[in-house]
Design brief:
Length: 71
């Protein structure tokens, strides 16, 4: 889990923790992330970094899910 809270989407105040939370809640597509957070809806400068954080968070969520279902 990340220790820092990085503001990724400055226009909407979206942080990396917000992105991780949406992934942990089951979002699988960038469009779902955008809908939940308003991310990349204005200037779009955050989209690339947000996508990388989102993909990493989805990967981690799947790994955690696999650990619990294997037990």
């Amino acid at each position: 889990q990340r220790q820092m809270c990085i503001e990724t989407g400055i226009c909407k105040g979206v942080t990396d923790r917000d992105i991780v939370a949406v992934a942990e809640q089951g979002a699988t597509r960038m469009s779902e992330l955008k809908e939940c957070t308003g991310l990349a809806s204005q200037c779009g400068k955050c989209a690339r970094d947000a996508k990388a954080i989102f993909n990493d968070a989805k990967r981690q969520a799947r790994q955690m899910e696999g650990m619990f279902s294997a037990a």
